[in-house]
């Protein structure tokens, strides 16, 4: 039965993470966000294409879906499924902390995968920075704070949002390893998600190396 809980948690988290808020916000204005700016459905391109209010709304929604998937789905699914069966912990809050953490991490992984590879857009999605931040607001909020500071400083120094995002993707797993050295599972998963975020920025890295990446505040981004 715990295996079924894991499967349902992963599926629900993926579906929640797969909601393409940036695409939907642009679609509401008659724009296919995939065809303008950087072509990305995330908050940065939404802000560039749709303006700051819409971009901030997309950012908050992308963060929220990561947080909700991680913080709320595991106990809801466990408490709905398990009480009907004997021989297991009756309620999620009664299970060992290590057991709870595995559920939270699984939910977080699949929420990010849902955002990055959304089934609604032929498995092409965003880069996962905001959704990952939401996941770690639930799992390791202090690590998110450190990554946020690194993100802001990197942008202020370079004027590139992509550099800030990549820097945060490095800072988050480093901080998790330092702050929770005994949680091997969380450390490995965070490192993998950080590597995935950097991989999703491969086109930005190519533009940075070519000197064609747009700086923060520019209206359009070269592909």
Entry summary:
By secondary structure, this protein is mostly helical. The chain has helices spanning 2-17, 21-27, 43-50, 52-71, 73-81, 97-116, 129-139, 141-158, 161-179, 184-200, 202-210. It contains eleven helices and no strands.
Describe the model:
The protein is an all-alpha fold. The protein has one domain (2-210). Helix content is 69%, strand content 0%. The chain has helices at residues 2-17, 21-27, 43-50, 52-71, 73-81, 97-116, 129-139, 141-158, 161-179, 184-200, 202-210. The radius of gyration is 18 Å and the shape is globular. The model has no long low-confidence stretch (mean pLDDT 92).
What characteristics describe this protein?
223 residues; mainly alpha; 11 helices; 69% helix; 0% strand; globular
N-to-C order of helices and strands:
HHHHHHHHHHH
Give the number of helices: 11
Query: How would you characterize the largest beta sheet?
Result: none
What Rg do the Cα atoms give? 18 Å
Strand content: under 5%
Number of strands: 0
Average pLDDT over all residues: 92
Low-confidence stretches: none
Q: What is the approximate shape?
A: globular
SSE blueprint:
Blueprint lengths: L1 H16 L3 H7 L15 H8 L1 H20 L1 H9 L15 H20 L12 H11 L1 H18 L2 H19 L4 H17 L1 H9 L13
